[in-house]
Amino acid sequence: MKNRMAQLIQSDGRCLFLPIDHGYFQGPTRKLEKPGETIKPLLPYCDAIFVTRGVLRSSVEPDSAKPTILRVSGGTSVVGKDLANEGLTTSMEEAIRLNVAAIGISIFVGSDYEHESLLNLSKLVDEGEKYGIPVMAVTAVGKELEKRDARYLALCSRIAAELGARVVKTYWCEGFEKITAGCPVPVVMAGGPQVDTEREVFDFVHDGLQKGAVGVNLGRNVWQNDFPVAMIRALRAIIHENATPKEAQEIYDSVKKA
Questions:
Q1: How do residues 147-172 score in pLDDT, each as one tens digit?
Q2: Which of 78, 200, 213, 231 has a CB 3.0–4.6 Å from the CB of 195, allowing a cystine?
Q3: Quick check: 150 and 182 in contact, CB under 8 A?
Q4: What is d(CA 16, CA 48) in angstroms, rounded to the nearest whole number?
Q5: Which residues contact 15 (CB under 8 A, 6 or more apart)?
Q6: Which is more confidently placed, 116 or 144?
Q7: Are 14 and 239 in contact (CB under 8 A)?
Q8: pLDDT, mean over the chain
Q9: Is 210 exposed, middle or buried (0-12, 13-18, 19+ CB in 10 A)?
Q10: Nearest to residue 251, comparing CAs of 46, 199, 237?
Q11: pLDDT of 12
Q12: Separation of alpha carbons 201 and 235, rounded Å
């Protein structure tokens, strides 16, 4: 368990995870139509990838793979009735076979499927602890983006930690320190939909780190950017080199022009 956690959260206590699992409910997401091509130039700069077993097998070269967080929940789609109605899609034996560093599952607190998703998390933690594989809980909100406030996300994050998640992925919001203060395990920030400017991303990532997050799990704000390598290098500077948002913007502009 300690070895796997050390693969994810680096020696400086920080991490940069790159999620490419969006296709499990969105299909061929824009700029992720060919995931292998999308991630190839980004892999040197991330600490781990968050991915489904299908894309891991088909699109990630075994000899150049980063530590893997395996998405093991799903069973819904954007055209279905309710995104919260997820189940477990991948066995622990499969996770072991794929040599993953962690497994990831969404929980939907406050939804009609709250009970099922929290019990799914609990069952997964039981299995993960048995084999020394940490579980990352994702505090998903489905299509209800208005739920992204500190009170709600602090509730979700604490419940995930109480049920045994070793890492919690949640959204940055105003008052983010309330989330990290009430969550006794490491918190990483999700990105959500792509925002209008790179500086907005640099600002919220920097703010979240100052308020207790250990890193990020950003996908669309990286690989949907017109200059994804510039974006991930700027983010890496904030996370691992304590760069300011202004310095990150300078790195982005410089790499973009190269």
A1: 789 999 999 999 999 999 999 999 99
A2: 200
A3: no
A4: 7
A5: 8, 9, 47, 48, 188, 214, 215, 216, 239
A6: 116
A7: yes
A8: 95
A9: exposed
A10: 237
A11: 98
A12: 9
Say if residues 73 and 107 touch (Cβ distance below 8 Å). no
Q: Show the DSSP H helices in the chain as ranges.
A: 2-8, 23-26, 35-39, 53-59, 92-97, 114-131, 150-162, 177-181, 198-210, 220-223, 228-241, 245-257
Residue 103 has which token pair? 């497994």
Say yes or no to pLDDT of 193 above 90.
no
Q: Enter the pTM of the model.
A: 0.95
What DSSP character marks residue 31?
Answer: T
**pLDDT (tens digit, 9 = 90+) per residue, 56-104?**
999 999 987 799 999 999 999 999 999 999 999 999 999 999 999 999 9
pLDDT in tens, 215-236: 999 999 999 999 999 999 999 9
Task: Delineate the domains of the chain, giving CATH numbers in brackets.
Answer: 2-222 (3.20.20.70)
- State yes or no: is 246 an active-site residue: no
- Return the DSSP state at 247: H
Quote the CA–CA distance of 236 and 150 in Å, as a whole number: 25
Say how many C-beta atoms besides its own lie within 10 A of residue 112's C-beta.
10
Structure tokens at 175: 């008052």
Residue 210 contacts by C-beta under 8 Å, 6 or more apart in sequence?
none
Which pLDDT does position 64 carry in this prediction?
Answer: 79
